[in-house]
Amino acid sequence: MSSIFTVSILQSALELGFIYSLVVLALFISFKILNIADLSTDGCFTLGCAVAASVTISGHPVLALFAAMGAGVLSGFITAFLQTRLGVESILAGIIVNTGLYTVNIAAMGFSANLNLFQCESIFTMAKDFTGKYFGEGVYKILVTNGWYKLLVLVVIVFIAAMLITAFLGTRLGLSIRATGDNAAMVKASSINPKFTITVGLCISGSLTALSGGILVQYQKSCDINLGTGMVTIALASLIIGETFIGRGPVAKRVVGVIFGSCLYRFIVAIAIRLNVPAECLKLVSALIVAVAIAFPYIKDNARFTKRKYAEMARRKKGGAD
Amino acid sequence: MLELKSIYKTFNEGTVNEKKVLKGLSLSLESGDFATIVGSNGAGKSTMFNAITGVFYVDAGEIILDGEDITFKKEYFRSKEIGHLFQDPMLGTAPHMTIEENMALAYLRASKGRHGYFSRVGKKDKEMFREHLKLLDMGLEDRMKQPAGLLSGGQRQALTLIMATMVTPKLLLLDEHTAALDPATAEKVLLLTRNIVAGRNITCLMVTHNMQQALSLGNRTIMMDSGNIVFDVSGEERKKLSVEDLLGKFKDNAGKNLDNDRILLSGK
């Protein structure tokens, strides 16, 4: 059994966990904070992949990530525009944008279904070069030879994003966005314009989703039109796993839960792969993990009630009351 | 401070369900006026409040607040200046945000022009929130990090009142804000209302079904019936009125008995 938990598995699970934690953070904002089921996530993620891949290929790895975020903001804006200004149901708005994005994504990839980034400079190769140039051999060995530099880069990015989001949610605008999803009646009677707060929230959410996609293509050095497929379910599962383990509470704690959930999800998938689950079954395994993760809190509650019920029934029988 | 100039509102116009709710209603409130409003079912009390806060635009007439024509201003624009409390205590606070966050939101939004989108509350502000909560005498000042959803209805309504008045609004609308509370809590919230409104000279309109309250609170009593004001009393004349007189006045002016299934004739 010990061979299942190798360091390299932990390492790659953490790397993927941190990359995808940005999507989970995006869903945390749209789904948990704004209380909107934004189904444009899949397309928006691929949009980030496509835009970042194209810009990376043209030799601007850092700009690529910002371009991806910009594209994500646009995508979020359109989703928000459809639901706040044109009266489209929020779920439908996401689906419409998701569908439309497929064409946009193909276009962003130069009308090809996949791109190869193997020879390109990326934020990871930059970090590698940086380590080689400025640090001694010992550090280089730990970071590059053992491969920890990727994780370090990701931790820094996610840390910055998480800090910014946490701080933002305490500002006037951030609090307004939270109130929008928490109590619609209160928002109506206060000076918050829900159309505006929903738009801002979805733009932020879109930018995080696309950033995640952008980092992923640089990480795996390839881009595919199907990278985002099923992303919304996976992110939702991670969100709920995180919430189940870390619980609710202050925003900072919940954001930590988001990142933790994402890493744990990747770890579970990594173990599944390790246990020789055939590649074609992976989607089913993912779906199972998602279903279990979402059902778990409910089952736990139910089990507690049932246990109490039987304990009480047993007690009454014994006591012979009535 | 507030002026309603013959406002009209008809719902479902042109259908069999057409209902003329406000029919040329005019009302003028001086700065610092605290008027109680009584009236029968469907008299248009809540509709008048909704017209003032901008839930809908009126069909005709003007609404002027502090010299500014707000007839066609959006709801969220007006609520910068207008505090609004409802009967349901759940409507005024965000349940999953802490007491402190709720207050921060109210504070940052209400103080016009001073706070940008990215402004936050500081230590001083939090201390000020604590002082406000202490006035409630409900122990909330020690629970500021707890979600507002954990509070009882009365506590939430008291918190909402604090939030609505922390930065003095130009107008405070109270729509039976104690009706859903138990008598003791209602009394407490009412006392608090009286202190805050009088202490800061807030212009206030309060709907109540308690006739005794209608006379004892504030400086003016307004009776409404079928979309209009039928009786408006203040000053010395009001001080002499008893509940029976008030009901008599209603019958004289509206031509029928005050008919309201929630009316409370006695005081407590």
Stretches of chain B where pLDDT is under 50 for at least 5 consecutive residues are none
Number of helices of chain B: 9
CA radius of gyration of chain B: 19 Å
Of all chain pairs, the largest interface belongs to: A-B, 22 and 34 residues
For the largest beta sheet of chain A, what order do the strands appear in spatially?
1-2
Based on helices, strands and strand pairing, what is the structural class of chain B? Answer: alpha/beta
Give the tally of β-strands of chain A.
Answer: 2
Indicate the multimeric state: heterodimer
Q: Main sheet of chain A?
A: 2 strands, antiparallel
Give the overall shape of chain A, derived from the CA principal axes: globular
Distance between the termini of chain B: 32 Å
Rg calculated over all Cα atoms of chain A: 22 Å
Mean pLDDT reading of chain A: 91
Termini of chain A, distance in Å? 54 Å
**Biggest sheet of chain B, strands in spatial order?**
6-7-8-3-9-10
> What fraction strand of chain B?
15-25%
Largest sheet of chain B: 6 strands, mixed
Pick out the low-confidence regions of chain A: none
- Average pLDDT of chain B: 88
Strand content of chain A: under 5%
Q: What string gives the helices and strands of chain A in order? A: HHHHEHHHHHHEHHH
Quick overview:
The complex is a heterodimer of chains A (322) and B (268). Chain A is an all-alpha fold.
Description:
The complex is a heterodimer of chains A (322) and B (268). Chain A has 322 residues and is mainly α. Chain A has helices at 7-33, 41-57, 61-84, 90-108, 123-134, 137-145, 149-168, 172-182, 184-189, 194-220, 231-246, 251-274, 282-319, and strands at residues 114-116, 222-224. Chain A has a two-stranded antiparallel ribbon with strand order 1-2. The model of chain A has no long low-confidence stretch (mean pLDDT 91). With 268 residues, chain B is α/β, with parallel strands linked by helices. Chain B has helices at residues 45-53, 75-78, 99-110, 123-136, 153-165, 183-199, 211-216, 235-240, 243-254, and strands spanning 2-11, 19-29, 34-39, 60-65, 68-69, 82-85, 171-175, 204-207, 220-225, 228-234. Chain B has a six-stranded mixed β-sheet, sandwiched between helices. Chain B has a four-stranded antiparallel β-sheet with strand order 2-1-4-5, covered by helices on one side. The radius of gyration of chain B is 19 Å and the shape is globular. The model of chain B has no long low-confidence stretch (mean pLDDT 88). The chains are: A mainly alpha (322), B alpha/beta (268). Chains A and B meet through helix 8 and helix 9 of A and helix 2 and helix 3 of B.
